[in-house]
Q: What sequence folds into this?
């Protein structure tokens, strides 16, 4: 009985500590949770793709690719980076009847972030399921939600 009484304060203490670790955005606070940038969403998709789904040149150029993406902010750059990513993916990783060339024609007419987002979604939706890492299934819905919030 005494052991149970001793454990109760520790359970309360642990419960409060665990609760304090959740990130909560408080309106008007400087501690608000930052939304991912378009560049981060391309990188998140890149990291969700199995390394074996990329061409051999990607491993050599990955750092350069990541640096290029991290400095881009406009819808035009976003769509060009999506096409660049698509070019690094092996052709056999695309669903039947689709290739990275399908994206490049669409990216040339991008003017808004919503159009650029649609190109990235089109890339993701036209990859075969085996081209993704197992963790991507858990990340995909949050990634799509953040993409839909870009303006």
A:
């Amino acid at each position: 009985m005494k052991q149970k009484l001793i454990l109760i304060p520790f359970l309360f203490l642990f419960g409060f500590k665990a609760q304090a670790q959740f990130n909560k955005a408080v309106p008007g606070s400087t501690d608000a949770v930052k939304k991912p940038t378009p560049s981060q969403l391309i990188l998140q998709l890149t990291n969700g793709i199995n390394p074996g789904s990329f061409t051999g040149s990607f491993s050599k150029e990955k750092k350069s690719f990541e640096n290029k993406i991290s400095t881009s902010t406009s819808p035009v750059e976003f769509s060009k980076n999506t096409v660049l990513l698509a070019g690094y993916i092996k052709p056999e990783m695309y669903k039947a009847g689709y290739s990275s060339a399908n994206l490049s024609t669409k990216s040339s007419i991008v003017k808004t972030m919503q159009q650029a987002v649609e190109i990235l979604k089109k890339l993701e939706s036209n990859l075969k399921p085996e081209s993704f890492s197992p963790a991507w299934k858990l990340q995909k819905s949050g990634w799509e939600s953040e993409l839909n919030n870009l303006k």
Residues 10-26 have pLDDT under 50 and may be disordered. The chain is about 60% helix and 0% strand.
